[in-house]
Amino acid sequence: MSVKSRLINSAGQPEFGLFPSGVSEINYLDYDLRSPMDRKLSAWSKKFKFNQFQFVALVSPELIVGIAIVDLKLVSNAFVYLYRPADGAFDEFSFVQPLALSTSIGLYPNNSEAVFRKGDNSIAIIADESAMQRRVCVSLSAGVEIDALIDESHCAPLAMCSRAGYQGWVYTQKTAALPCLGRVIWQGETRDLAAMNTLASVDWTAGYMRGETFWNWASLSATLADGRRLGLNLAAGVNETGFTENALWLDDQLIKVDTVDFQFSRYQPESEWRVCSADGIVDLRFTPAGQRKEKLNALLIASNFTQHFGVFQGQIRLENEVIEIQQQWGFAEDHYARW
Question: Do the beta carbons of residue 171 and residue 26 sit within 8 Å?
């Protein structure tokens, strides 16, 4: 299937739905953005109301890495965290830039750069459509270095655009269980990603999001006992107006999943989560091992963000088989946002 060239059509409206091969350009400045009372908004409003973020996870039994760049126009932030399951070692690095200084995220999900810099710290996520790969480059003053090359030729992304509130929309593109190679330098030790059988997941999201929103999210990237790669992306509370971003990948095959219920205790961070889909495909339990947590409550912007990393177990029930999940590393997230 061919890639859709631009998200906003000639009438100034986004195309809603699922895009099996993705969208080349998120041309948001062509959107006919209006107030709830139908007043046309200025180009300045278009730019400053548009939010973007990218998140990349590198997952192996030996090392868990989370990397994000977030551009909210009034402020940008980035974070990198690393967790070693063998001994529970954990480091987190978080940075904020007012007015999104030294921050840029391109509008081509598969062929542009996302860059964040602050002082001697730099984070870049570079997508190369011709090579069908995405490179992650991190250099931190604390001595952390990451150079990862993610192979995106193996499977199509889950790409969709849905309504967000009365006048907004969100485009999101997700992939999981992608092979990757490269290295991570942390705490004076160099780790080879390919040697650890590392798999990557990628989240590219942009749009005019609800002014106040929340979501729960789960992601899994695992190598099964028979050698197949299993990826999972599940969410509730966001991007569910007519379509969902729930899917799994079994090697190169993308399988859609119905709506998902997340059951957990927000105020008991070490307690077990239950994640089940309405169609019965997903029936998983998630046990947190650690978390990255951040609270921000400013005049115009607020965020209560908790991203847990831990292990999944349970079943994936497909038409022709039942896949048993045992102690596979992944993520579960609880997030409130006002922007």
Answer: yes
Residue 121, token pair as written in the block: 């710290």
Which pLDDT tens digit goes with each residue over 15-58?
A: 999 999 899 999 999 999 999 999 999 999 999 999 999 999 99
Q: Exposed (0-12), middle (13-18) or buried (19+): which is 282, by Cβ within 10 Å? A: buried
Does the pTM exceed 0.90? yes
Taking only Cα atoms into account, the Rg of the chain, rounded to an integer number of angstroms, comes to 19
Write the DSSP string, 151-197: E-SSS--EEEEEEETTTEEEEEEEEEEEEEEEEEEETTEEEETTTTT
Number of domains in the chain: 1
> Which of 92, 51, 97 minimizes the C-alpha distance to 71?
51
User: Which tens digit of pLDDT belongs to each residue from 62-79?
Assistant: 999 999 999 999 899 999
Q: How many CB atoms lie within 10 A of CB 319?
A: 6
Q: Which two tokens stand for residue 131?
A: 């090579």
How is residue 102 written in tokens? 């030294």
Tell me which residue range forms the domain holding 263. 4-338
Looking up tokens 């999972």, which residue turns up? 232
